[in-house]
Structure formats: C-alpha cells, structure tokens
Amino acid sequence: MEKTATILIVDDDKTVIEQLVTHFRRRNYEPIATANPAVIEQTLKAFEVHLILLDLRMERLNGYEVLEKLKKLNIQIPVLIITAYFKDEREKLRSVGMTEAEIIEKPFRDFSKIEAKINQKLSLVVVPGEVDSDYEDAIYESNKTKVVLVDDESEINDFLTELLEARKYQVVAFERGDRALEYLLKNDCQVAVVDMKMPGLTGDRLIQEILKAKPTLKIIPTSGAYVKEIKEQLSKVGFDPEKLVTKPFDIPILVERIKVFAAESGTLGVSIS
Questions:
Q1: What is the model's pTM?
Q2: pLDDT in tens for each of the 273 residues of the chain?
Q3: Which of 55, 89, 94, 189 could serve as a FRET partner for 161 with CA atoms 20 to 30 Å apart?
Q4: For domain 136-264, which CATH number applies: 3.40.50.1860, 3.40.50.1010, 3.30.420.40, 3.40.50.2300?
C-alpha cells in the first residue's frame, strides 16, 4: 500500500470536519483539521501536509484569500476545493485556476468519488472500500499509555492531542516547560514529546531534569529550526541527538515512534519483536 497521505481539512463547519476526519481516519489517510483558516501557515510549518481540502465560504478568511496566501508563500501543496456553492462560484474558481476536477461538492454523497479525486491529485492508487483497520484497532483497544505534549504552539498541541486520543492515548498538553516538568515529576507517564524552544524552561533543560528523575520515560525531542544547535544541546545533557524529530512533522512516522515507545513501556498491546 502507498505511504499514508496527510490531508489538512480547512472548513469552519465543525460538522463537516467531523464527517471528513472520521471517514479518512478509517482509510489510508492521516487527517488533521482546523476551523480557523488564519492558522494555515503555522500549521504547514508544523506538519508535513500532502494535500489541502479547502472550503470557500468561511468567516475569518475565505477560500480565495487562503489560495492567494498560499501563492504568496510559494507553497506548492495540492489543493482541492470543497463547497456547497459550486454553481455560483464556477466562474470565479476558473479565474483562479481551479478546474472542475479539483472541486468536491457538498453535501458529500459518494466518498469513493472524493477519494478518487484525492488519489488523482496525489498520484496515489488506493482501491475503494474500507482499508482493513482491525489490526490497528486491536493494538489500541487496551491502550494505557499516557503521553505528555510540551509545545508553546497551542495548534500543534490540539492537532496532536486529537490524533493521539483517537488511538486511545491519554494526553496531557503544556505550553510551558516549567509547568510540564512540575507535572512530570508528580505523575506517571510513558512518553513525552518535547519542543526544544520553550518558555519557562527550554527543552534541553527539561529533558535534563526528566532524565535525572525518571530515566525510563521515553522522550521525543522536536524542533522546527537550528537543527545543528539543538543536537549539540541534546548531546550536552546526555541525550542521543539522532532522536530529534524535526518539524514539519511527518505524522505517520511520529505516530509510529510513539507507538513503539508505548509498546516498550508495556502499556500498549503490540509486540515489537
């Protein structure tokens, strides 16, 4: 099967978001979603996205404004438009270079047609019909893993929390390193995902303190810049710098790493042999 594609859904209708996320999560895709189109630039810096599903009529920014913003930022990620007003918007869509093949009409009646357009845009071949998810369901059925997220960007914490809670992880998120440390010292948890540039307490200091108090805790350090400098900081506190995960996140890889750590901790029902 092809590598999992990460799809960013941008729509201020939360019912639509829930509908699409629920469906795609059961398929060979990794969906993330936001009802706030104003954060799209920040989101694309944080996550490796392969395709954007973009609504046209939104209150904060409309779809045309988002398309213009992507163009100005020279972001080359493929876009499909989702809209209930295709007939009204047909000419304007053509004027910005969107063809009928790049439009998905609401309400959604046939998800196989939606997937066909997605796969065509991504040059993927996925057979229509439900992807067998019994194996993943069995893995996460009795998930007892607690994950702590430490990142000063609330959108990143929100996206990752949703992704992990869908897999039955217990998730606690912090936007300051000092508050995360206070929690980690007082509570049992198995995995910590730690951004290196944090207010209150930097990631390297946080990791150093965690290693002293709870050496068995699995740590995933993350950073969006200054990779060489960050790796040097990790080395100085005795942490393997090659374990650094850089942003934008490749979500399937990050999810898999958390799964492996959870299995190693004995809180997830999967063999790592």
A1: 0.80
A2: 445 789 999 999 989 999 899 888 888 788 999 999 888 999 999 999 999 999 999 988 899 999 999 999 999 899 999 999 998 999 999 999 998 889 999 888 788 888 888 888 887 544 444 444 555 667 888 899 999 999 999 999 999 999 999 899 999 999 999 999 999 999 999 999 999 999 999 999 999 999 999 999 999 999 988 899 999 999 999 999 999 999 999 898 899 899 999 999 999 875 544
A3: 55
A4: 3.40.50.2300
For the chain, what are the domain ranges?
Answer: 5-122, 136-264
Q: Is 250 exposed, middle or buried (0-12, 13-18, 19+ CB in 10 A)?
A: middle
Q: What angle do CA 30, 36, 37 make, to 5 degrees?
A: 85
Q: Which class in CATH covers the domain with range 5-122? A: alpha beta
| Number of Cβ atoms within 10 Å of the Cβ of 109 | 8
What residue has token string 């609330």? 154
